[in-house]
Design goal:
The complex is a heterodimer of chains A (294) and B (85).
Chain A lengths: L1 H20 L6 H6 L1 H5 L3 E5 L2 E3 L22 E3 L1 H15 L5 E8 L3 H11 L3 E6 L3 H4 L3 H15 L3 E5 L10 H9 L3 E11 L2 E8 L2 E8 L2 E5 L11 H7 L4 E4 L32 H10 L4
Parallel strand pairs in A: 1-4, 1-6, 4-5, 5-11, 6-10, 7-10
Antiparallel strand pairs in A: 2-3, 7-8, 8-9
Helix pairs in contact in A: 5-9, 7-8
Chain B lengths: L2 H17 L7 H14 L6 H34 L5
Classes of the chains: A alpha/beta (294), B mainly alpha (85).
Pfam family, one (chain A): ETF
Family (chain A): Belongs to the ETF beta-subunit/FixA family.
Subunit structure (chain A): Heterodimer composed of ETFA and ETFB. Identified in a complex that contains ETFA, ETFB and ETFRF1. Interacts with ACADM.
Chain lengths: 294, 85
């Protein structure tokens, strides 16, 4: 039982740290100063991505070296996207946005990921059907084109995505979507606050933290320390079954999903050589000399 | 079996079972221990005691959620961020 108490201690330590980041009080007070804002409908559109589960350890390269084996591998929502969903739901709970729409692109299995987002608190889902060969070549450019088209169609004011997908680590979709829509972007957000008509974003950059103020509509990509995503418990999942998921095809949005990239080769990283143990310092020096290192 | 609490207990069991699917030591291990824990208390009839046990179950749910979150957070942090000295 001592193990679970360690977890609890760390979890509470976690929560305090997360609260420190989010230190300022929720922005309810401003609503009374700016009555205009409460009328505004801010629709948040999230991206939800299905990736190979982060705890799966045996990823194998396909025999024809064009990719990685994905059949039968457990898939789940991208961790950064979970953080994005949580942020959107938090904004809705603070009554700063009107509706949260979760979007995902892919084959039928993606519906499960959308259901998880609905269970976390999104209002409805949109499933952009992309299957088979198109799905394997679906990259950030195609996804951002789809998102740009959807954002215009749904008249969303805010798009929140995870900063990168853990399977391809591209870190491009958010930035490309903002460029296609000509919207400002707050990437690597570790804190997001809505202030009057603008969005204040604290970004995690190499040198530390950068605070920027951007106009709405905008694109935000979530970084690890934005919040602590809630777990979709069974009762919430049951409730989420009643929420709607609409199906859309990329062709309906006028988007061409053909890829401009061709994967030439996928290789496993080189096998780690086992080390050699030596008895004395003299032996070590000998071995290093042999290996040509000194 | 006290009727109103029976529903709560069953709901708790279902929630724990659902959470146990991702348990690091394996679903079978978790399910055995869960069933054992519930069966051990199956003859308790005092509603006070049942409420206490249900509360303990909810505490375990929170611990599991924290465990899963920390595991994911630590994995992401290790993969993507420079180790802080």
């Amino acid at each position: 039982m001592h193990r679970s108490s360690e977890v609890k201690h760390l979890a509470s330590d976690f929560n305090t740290r997360a609260c420190e980041c989010f230190g300022q009080p929720p922005v309810q007070p401003f609503e009374s100063h700016c009555p205009v804002l409460t009328d505004r409908t801010v629709r948040v559109q999230l991206k939800v991505l299905k990736v190979k589960d982060g705890s799966v350890f045996f990823i194998r390269v396909k025999p024809d070296r064009t990719g990685v084996v994905t059949d039968g591998v457990k898939h789940s929502m991208n961790p950064f996207c979970e953080i994005a969903v949580e942020e959107a739901v938090k904004l809705k709970e603070k009554k700063l946005v009107k509706e949260v729409v979760a979007v995902s692109c892919g084959p039928q299995q993606v519906q499960e990921t959308i259901r998880t987002a609905l269970a976390m608190g999104a209002d409805r889902g949109i499933h952009v059907e992309v299957s088979g060969k198109d799905y394997e070549t679906l990259g950030p450019l195609q996804v951002s084109k789809i998102f740009a088209a959807l954002a215009k169609k749904e008249q969303a004011d805010l798009i929140i995505l995870g900063k990168q997908a853990i399977d391809d680590d591209c870190n491009q979709t958010g930035q490309m979507t903002a460029a296609l829509l000509d919207w400002p972007q707050g990437t690597f957000a570790s804190e997001v606050t809505l202030e009057a008509d603008k969005l204040k974003v604290v970004r995690e950059i190499d040198g530390g933290l950068e605070t920027i103020k951007i106009n709405l509509p905008a694109v935000v990509t979530a970084d690890l320390r934005l919040n602590t995503p809630r777990y979709a418990t069974l009762p919430n999942i049951m409730k989420a079954k009643k929420k709607k998921i609409t199906n859309v095809k990329p062709a309906d949005l006028g988007v061409d999903v053909s890829s401009r990239l061709e994967v030439l080769k996928v290789d496993e990283p080189p096998q780690r050589q086992s080390g050699v143990k030596v008895e004395t310092v003299h032996d070590l020096v000998e071995k290093l000399k042999e290996a040509g290192r000194i | 079996m006290s009727n109103p609490l029976r529903g709560e207990v069953i709901r708790l069991y279902k929630n724990l079972l659902y959470l146990g699917r991702e348990y690091p030591k394996g679903t079978a291990y978790f399910r055995e221990r869960l069933k054992g824990a519930f069966m051990k208390n199956k003859d308790v009839t005092d509603p006070e005691k049942i409420k206490q046990l249900v509360d303990r179950g909810e505490f375990v749910i929170k611990e599991l959620e924290a465990l899963y979150f920390l595991r994911k957070y630590r994995a992401m942090k290790k993969r993507y961020y420079e180790p802080e000295h």
